[in-house]
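The records we work with from here on pair a chain with its fold. Taken together, the tokens spell out the fold as the letters spell out the chain. The record below shows the convention in full.
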Amino acid sequence: MYNLDAENTVKETAAEWALRLNAGHVVGAEHLKLQAWLDANAANAETLRRALSVLQTLDQDSSDELDVLRGQAWSSFARRNRTAALRQTLQRFGAVVACAVLGMGLYLATPSIRSNLFSTTYRTIGNEWRTVELSDGSRVALDANSAIKVHFEDGRRQIWLTSGRANFNVAKDALRPFTVAAGDRTVIATGTEFSVDRQRGDGRVILYEGRVSVMANDEGMSQWLGGWPRPKKTVALLAPGQAFSGESAANGRTDTLSANDLQDSMAWRDGQLVFDGTPLRTAIDEAKRYADISIELQNPDGRDIRVSGIYRAGDAAAFITGVTAAYPVSAVKTSNGYVLKVRPEK
């Protein structure tokens, strides 16, 4: 038999979680409570997705009635009032949400609507560099083929590095931590300078000034937060001159960089590639980041050739000429670039 009361309870609970998530109040143990509710019934997840999507879409509506309902729901939730007054407000607001769901259909079930509606995206393409000044005074330098999403509101400053590499010079604000999510890790700071590189397979974080903590993300929760990563566990505390890297955040390592290595790591902001005993494959990967042609490596005997030199980012021809002149490497032109081959030892 169809149970209307049970359905209303699910919708009401989904509305409460939607308000909590939208306010950023689902932290710590609340994550586990939400996950338990989602696991209890497959329909709960779909109902939450719709409630989140519609809530955030309705936030763009300027009608007086919706403003009043929205304000009542937010105020009641902020006071953590679990009485019948909150239920009544949520039910009234939920009724508007339910009508909107019916009208907007499956489009509103998209789980990434939260991050898409409430964030600003900055990106670079090809051989392009860009510096962005954010609303809090922080500055972000984007490397070539890089992208970030920015979401600022009261109490938090969130960045999502979705691709490439970026350097963050963070304006000091102890009351609003500055977080940068990249893959399975999140960097948390209040006022400092650091870089994060997703292009590398090890997701390296380098700290130049101040202090930051690196946290492993709770990947299981991300899909219910519009795809936005959420930190779960601290895996490293960095001091200036240190770097954190690893294929997974949970198994990462912290290294102290030399003064030269630290300086070389910032060269890309000046359009330079600096190699100092760098493995050939790593140097090629770095050159490819800026090249408009393909550069591949064939290394049959697996020799660890290390290269040194300074090259202009984007000048693939100069890089290939320099490497083949100084090392036992030959270049074969292809239809879309070059294949570099390590010559066998004599």
Q: What stands out?
A: Residues 58-87, 96-117 have pLDDT under 50 and may be disordered. The radius of gyration is 25 Å. The chain has three domains: 4-110, 115-261, 271-342.
